[in-house]
Amino acid sequence: MTEKTLKIRHNAKLIRLISSLQRFYFRPTFLGTENLVPNKPAMYVGNHTIYGVLDSPILIDYLFTEHKIAVVSLADHMHFHIPIWKEVVKRVGGVDGVQEYAKEAMRQGYSILVFPGGGREVIKRKGEAYQLIWKQRFGFLKLAQEFGYEIAPFVALGGDEVFDLAFDVNVLLKQKWFNKILSNPKIGSLLRQGEVIPSIPKHIIPKRIPFYFKFMPRLSIDQIENMDDMILFRDQLQASIYTEIESLKSYRAHDLEQKTYNKKLRTKNNF
Questions:
Q1: 3-state class of 224 per DSSP?
Q2: 92: helix, coil or strand?
């Protein structure tokens, strides 16, 4: 497939079905909606939660259904090597996150959902909850600059807490025998030196923890003139997302406390 033949294959009914089930189960709260600008496409950039399949459908459905913002998610390459699953990913708004496809989606006027941490950020290990694993990636900013897209930062809270890990893949990666296997060029390349090997959860069914999403004010990238500017912008963006995650944790604690109090009050008034 070339950029000329890229077809965005949103299946609105499937997205709505998946999102409806997730929204019923996780009862998401959306904050900062005053920062959304429906008539101007942007690049939505945020943190990716564990396994990466719980946050994206909710976001894509919410943005389109409630605000008429059509979003294409740039998905990790590994999704597109799995039969059947790759078709599901396409139908819920995902395209292989290579530059050619991203550029064509942007030419078509779509907003773009980007998780700079990619596949590694969803393969969370013990102690990595809400960590941004962006490495030295700048491609998303170069794309936004090329197409004049503003950066629309957001944060997602709850997804990294729904699974307790029974087996931490770090244990495996410390084994000499396994590193010997990874030294095989084909195997090492396929597994990205172990980066795409997931840790194993204690339970298949996620804990029912309320999700919170917050959309932050858009950021212009007009001031980026050189690589130093880009590094500074990326570092500041990352820092602002970390700050907002902590702020959202505080908001959640107060919100859940208030909801518990209101529930007790209603129960008391019913007697």
A1: coil
A2: coil
User: What are the pLDDT digits (tens) for 205-220?
Assistant: 999 999 999 999 999 9
Residue 230 burial class via C-beta count within 10 angstroms: exposed 0-12, middle 13-18, buried 19 and up: middle
- pTM for the full predicted model: 0.88
The answer to whether 47 touches 213, Cβ cutoff 8 Å, is no
C-alpha 33/C-alpha 208 separation (Å) is: 24
Question: What is the Rg, in whole angstroms, of the alpha carbon atoms belonging to the chain?
Answer: 20
SS3 178: helix
Each residue of 122-167: pLDDT tens digit? 888 999 999 999 988 888 999 999 999 999 999 999 999 999 999 9
| Cβ density class 23-45: b for 16+ within 10 Å, e for less | bebbebbbbbeeebeeeebbbbb
* Sequence spans of domains, the chain: 3-163+206-269, 164-203
**How many angstroms separate the CA atoms of 4 and 33, rounded?**
34
Cβ-contact 113, 56 below 8 angstroms: yes
CATH of domain 3-163+206-269: 3.40.1130
